[in-house]
Description:
Residues 1-20 form the signal peptide. The chain is an alpha/beta fold.
Amino acid sequence: MRNWILVLTLLGGSLLSAHAAPGGADGEPAGESAIEVIVAPDVPVDTLTVNQLRLIFSLRLRSWPNGAPIRVVTEPDDAPVHQAFCRTHLGVYANSLRIAWNRLIYTGLAAGPTVVNGEAAMLERVANLPGAIGYVRQGERGDAGVRTVTVTPEPR
């Protein structure tokens, strides 16, 4: 039991640690051109830092600046786009993110994300769910009624 608690603590901390920040040599988030972060039309932000994105997708930041609830939308853990998003934008593996979610869900501290199958479903769900945030491959957004959010590195 003690080992399990240690593993969960270490994994939870890795979601938020500064040295796990994704990024290329120029300091920009790696893969930003390959995967876009999208939000519902009502979301009052245009830019998020890497740490804000981590807090949102780790279910630890639960409301937008206007007080509206954040609703995280993801693809299944084994979906290639989800795995790439986790690695390039969050700096974690998808299974580590799932472990952190499960800890919060099973202790009653958070509700799990909405899981959709495929980018068409992601676009539809984010467009029609107030406060939603998700991700798609660049070029898949089209006229789906969602907005792209810029992800910036942390200021030094």
